[in-house]
Design brief:
The protein is an alpha/beta fold. The protein contains 12 helices and 9 strands. Helix 1 packs across helix 2. It binds ligand C2E and magnesium ion (MG) (3 copies). Keywords: Coiled coil.
């Protein structure tokens, strides 16, 4: 009886694994094609000042809508891309789109804030990344101050000296570095002292309960005071309602990002927002 149950469970398991592998295989095939055909797009989620909701920047987020599979979340295809090595192609495509948009917005006379891009560990450590990135911008007459590089703790600390070296190179090229999903990496904080970092993003898992949960408040408050001491900017991620915003304001968090202010926007929608911001600044 137990044996039979065990065998059934095993078959059940094996079926799950097989299905997951098949899904990955289909996704990877389609993703390779999407990269070749340049079908990935980028959405821009504004970062705003909590005091007056004015625009201070935006984060570029990759979007993939497959003609047969439909929209696929980055949380599903980015890890797969990282494992299989196609992440470099995604990184290049995203950077190309961001540079193209930056040039178009500038040509239109829009007040363009720095745009944050997410860089995967594998891309970061692929060798010569900092120089490559700098050259991509320079070819188009853009400087390193038009981008912010978002990295997760894992991509730096787990890679030890190699991560530190690339960070030094990025900083030497003039790039600002932001630590994404801060507080989820289980890492020692000593790297903050040794590394050229300018911004911490409070992970949205801590922002979620910030209006009611004492633990979330304590964590956010600790991050904010750490950042003040080290002279770093703090951005709260994933703000979804007014109570979260009020709690963050009372803790002294000056910049935030989230669906409460703006969901990730198509390039044209973001440009319209920049146009409004420019008019407000002028008038
Ligand atoms: P992330 O860098 O932490 O990006 C923030 C994520 O939070 C985005 O998910 C964004 O859409 C989502 N978000 C923003 N506001 C809210 C909110 O109010 N509520 C909730 N529930 N979510 C909110 P997205 O676009 O699905 O991306 C997920 C992750 O995939 C990103 O997390 C980042 O790690 C990765 N990713 C996205 N684009 C790229 C890219 O171009 N390159 C690389 N390497 N990774 C990327
Ligand atoms: Mg990010
Ligand atoms: Mg994040
Ligand atoms: Mg996150």
């Amino acid at each position: 009886r137990a044996k039979e149950l065990g065998r059934n469970q095993f078959q059940y398991f094996a079926k799950d694994i097989k299905q997951a592998l098949q899904r990955d295989l289909v996704l990877l095939t389609q993703l390779r094609r999407a990269i070749l055909q340049q079908q990935l797009t980028v959405a821009y989620q504004p970062k705003v000042r909590t005091a007056d909701r004015s625009l201070v920047g935006a984060e570029a987020l990759v979007r993939w809508h497959d003609p047969t599979l439909g929209p696929i979340a980055p949380a599903e295809f980015i890890p797969l891309a990282e494992r299989s090595g196609v992440i470099a192609g995604i990184g290049e495509l995203v950077l190309g789109r961001v540079i193209g948009d930056l040039l178009r917005w500038r040509a239109a006379g829009l007040p363009v804030p720095p745009i944050a891009i997410n860089v995967s560990p594998r891309q970061l450590l692929s060798g010569g990344f900092a120089g490559w990135l700098h050259a991509q911008l320079q070819q188009q007459g853009l400087g390193p101050d038009c981008l912010i590089i978002e990295l997760t703790e894992g991509s730096l600390i787990e890679r030890g000296a190699a991560g530190l070296k690339v960070l030094g190179e990025l900083s030497a090229q003039g790039f600002s570095i932001s630590i994404d999903d801060f507080g989820t990496g289980y890492s020692s904080l000593s790297y903050l002292k040794r590394m050229p970092i300018s911004e911490l993003k409070i992970d949205r898992s801590f922002v979620h309960g910030i209006a009611d949960d004492g633990d979330d408040q304590a964590i956010a408050s600790a991050i904010l005071s750490l950042a003040r001491t080290l002279g770093l900017t703090v951005v709260a991620e994933g703000v979804e309602d007014l109570r979260q915003l009020q709690a963050l304001c009372s803790l002294g968090c000056s910049v935030a990002q989230g669906d409460f202010f703006h969901r990730p926007l198509e390039a044209a929608e973001f440009a319209a927002l920049l146009e409004g911001a420019g008019l407000r600044a002028a008038g």
